[in-house]
Amino acid sequence: MICGGIKMKVLVVGSGGREHAICWKLSKSPKVDKIYCAPGNAGIAELAECVDIKAMEFEKLVAFAKENSIDLTVIGMDDPLVGGVVDVFEAEGLRVFGPRKNAAILEGSKAFSKDLMKKYNIPTAAYETFTSAEEAKKYLETAEYPIVLKADGLALGKGVLICENKEDALAGVDELMLDKKFGTAGDTIVIEEFMTGREVSVLSFVDGDTIKIMSSAQDHKRAKDGDQGLNTGGMGNFSPSPFYTKEVDEFCKKYIYQATVDAMKSEGRPFKGVIFFGLMLTPKGPKVLEYNARFGDPEAQVVLPRMKNDIVDVFEACIDGTLDKVDLQFEDNACVCVILASDGYPLAYEKGFEIKGMENFKGKDDYFLFHAGSKFNEEGKVVTNGGRVLGVTALGKDLKEARAKAYEATEWVDFDNKYMRHDIGKAIDEA
């Protein structure tokens, strides 16, 4: 632990809205003197010094951390975690927040996580795992529909196909396993029962033994209004979820959260970092849809603004195994994030359009503009540089107020090809 009043230098690895939210939260810590972000984006550049090192360039990241006397590195993205970046940092005696490679497999392999849940009786959908397209198709001949196909490996949150009938499912197997739409992520696939209910996201901090739950959130994965269109990395989010009741919380604490941490420890894979629980609130009770081994994006953008704690204290407690001494607290308010995307996302879209109106967010404490896909062009102007461009985020006394404020703020900023869903948080009205 850093002590004695020394101001810290922190390196954040990643370039999305999640990393912008982490940098923003770090900037609020009196313990932090300097923030670097590799590679960062145009919005992060207002809070941190962006470094031209990619997230998968582990040796360069380590060299930078050593040369610049970095006190703490925070890994935001899934790819480097699954690739073992934490192990590389630790081997050099550097302090780093995130799970080691053998624990990040919780997200890196859906087959592993499903087998873990089965072994330790953690509630999840019934499933089968396949490494042969032929065997998968044979199974689908007698399966019940709708059914869900999942690429085993990382697929940018998009490697999940919900198939209404056998024809769609057979085509889905081709897409994942033969056409390699998501590369080697589809070498193995998981086929599981289709669950009905409300989806809820719950982030947690873990130190290998202790787990502390953050406030609940609810994502909107589909590209278009009414939950239509293709799966995306997330088109918006709100926190807390009115559907995450006290009863749901008690059930999950008893049968899912601590059970997962204990299971990973029993497997010789102690988990330190953030576990993201993707839950389905089914008629038969909460079940795990999936695990992620890091903050969600855009979940981080609605959860971190509500967190009372100094995030440095929490990061260090996770590393040092002292999370049991942390009283994790959240404001009694609400937060809504609406993603402004490039029209055409998640398929083909144009980029390079100037983003205008960002100054409208200056000095407004309840409003945040988290950058996901932005960069500086040759003229020094901030332009679009991705499918998801901005996360327009607002706090309110309750969800309805936060939602109204977030949508109001979407009008403050503009760029060509701007696209968004207009029903983020609409479920609030049904709660």
TrEMBL record:
Keywords: ATP-binding, Ligase, Manganese, Metal-binding, Nucleotide-binding, Purine biosynthesis. SUPFAM superfamilies: Glutathione synthetase ATP-binding domain-like (SSF56059), PreATP-grasp domain (SSF52440), Rudiment single hybrid motif (SSF51246). The keyword Metal-binding applies. Residues 114-320 form the ATP-grasp domain. Its EC number is 6.3.4.13. It catalyses: 5-phospho-beta-D-ribosylamine + glycine + ATP = N(1)-(5-phospho-beta-D-ribosyl)glycinamide + ADP + phosphate + H(+). This is Phosphoribosylamine--glycine ligase. It comes from Lachnospira eligens (strain ATCC 27750 / DSM 3376 / VPI C15-48 / C15-B4). The gene is purD.
